[in-house]
Write a structure and sequence with these properties.
The strands form three sheets. A five-stranded mixed beta sheet has the order 6-5-7-8-9, sandwiched between helices. Strands 1-2 form a two-stranded antiparallel sheet. It has 252 residues and is α/β, with parallel strands linked by helices. The termini are far apart. The protein has helices spanning 33-53, 97-109, 168-174, 194-203, 219-231, and strands spanning 21-23, 29-31, 69-70, 76-77, 120-124, 130-135, 185-190, 207-212, 234-237. The longest helix is centred in the N-terminal third of the chain and has 21 residues, at 33-53. The chain is globular and about 75 Å long. The protein has a domain at 97-237: Cytidine Deaminase, domain 2, CATH 3.40.140. A hairpin with a 5-residue loop joins strand 3 (69-70) and strand 4. The protein is built from five helices and nine strands; from the N terminus they run ββαββαββαβαβαβ. Helix 4 packs parallel to helix 5 (219-231). 25% of the residues lie in helices and 15% in strands. InterPro entries: APOBEC/CMP_deaminase_Zn-bd, CMP_dCMP_dom, Cytidine_deaminase-like, dCMP_deaminase-rel, Deoxycytidylate_deaminase_dom.
């Protein structure tokens, strides 16, 4: 009875090897080589199992997914290649390409110094890349304060802006970053005048998308359409999918 509750090294198996190790002279049990290896293998297997099953991070990204797949971002997908499992889907209220490029034209127009009419133009290639932007204003090097901005004047043509201003279409073409502009399209707020139509045709632009044609019956607009039709330049009125695009710098 006394030996059973005392030091185990004093028991009747003091000199016999234990089931998992070998008794040392000090009475401590040392693990045998095979027992140690078995223990390490068991631990490694446990760790491997944990790595496969435990989610990594709050968005539950995984390193192994069976039987599904793992997307490029590491989010598990179902085996049918459908929507990512447990992921956030894309937003659906993004603007269309046409609204985007017309919006760029309108934003460019805000740079115009013209007090009565602000017009912007945006040139886009076949890969939906912007290749030119312009707005109406006086030529480079000509002071905005030295020339008239009036639409009409008792002094005649030379005292109006029309003798000096460069239209948005012209500036967009001259500011382009590629040459030529073959098969590009132009987004502009107002239907181009006959002078801009000549530049558009000569530059290689094949599509004109405009928002307003309020001067439709003016002679210069009639001439513009005639030129476009003969040259094979397509033109169409833009119908926005959204009525307003807001730029809020405070949301950054």
């Amino acid at each position: 009875m006394g030996e059973a509750s005392g030091n185990p090294s004093k028991g009747r198996h003091h000199d016999a090897p234990s089931a998992t190790g070998i008794a040392s002279p000090s009475g401590k049990t040392l693990p045998s080589t095979s027992a140690s290896q078995a223990s390490m293998a068991s631990t490694a297997a446990s760790l491997t199992s944990t790595t496969k099953e435990e989610p990594m991070g709050p968005d539950r990204r995984t390193t192994v997914t069976t039987p599904g797949q793992v997307s490029k971002t590491g989010t598990a997908q179902d085996s049918q290649g459908g929507s990512p499992v447990g992921s956030v889907t894309k937003r659906e209220d993004y603007i269309s390409w046409d609204d985007y490029f017309m919006g760029v034209a309108f934003l460019s127009a805000m740079r115009s110094k013209d007090p009565s009419t602000q017009v912007g133009a945006c040139l886009v290639d076949t890969e939906n890349k912007i290749v030119g932007i312009g707005y109406n204003g006086f030529p480079r090097g000509c002071s905005d304060d030295a020339l008239p901005w009036a639409r009409q004047s008792d002094g005649g043509f030379l005292d109006t802006k029309y003798a000096y201003v460069c239209h948005a279409e012209m500036n967009a073409i001259l500011n382009r970053n590629i040459a030529p502009l073959h098969d590009c399209r132009m987004y502009v707020a107002l239907f181009p005048c006959n002078e801009c139509a000549k530049l558009i045709i000569q530059s290689g632009v094949k599509d004109v998308i405009y928002l307003s044609d309020k001067y439709h019956d003016d002679a210069i607009m009639v001439a513009s359409r005639r030129l476009f039709d003969l040259a094979g330049v397509r033109y169409r009125k833009h119908t926005p999918k959204v009525n307003r695009i807001t730029i809020d710098f405070s949301s950054a």
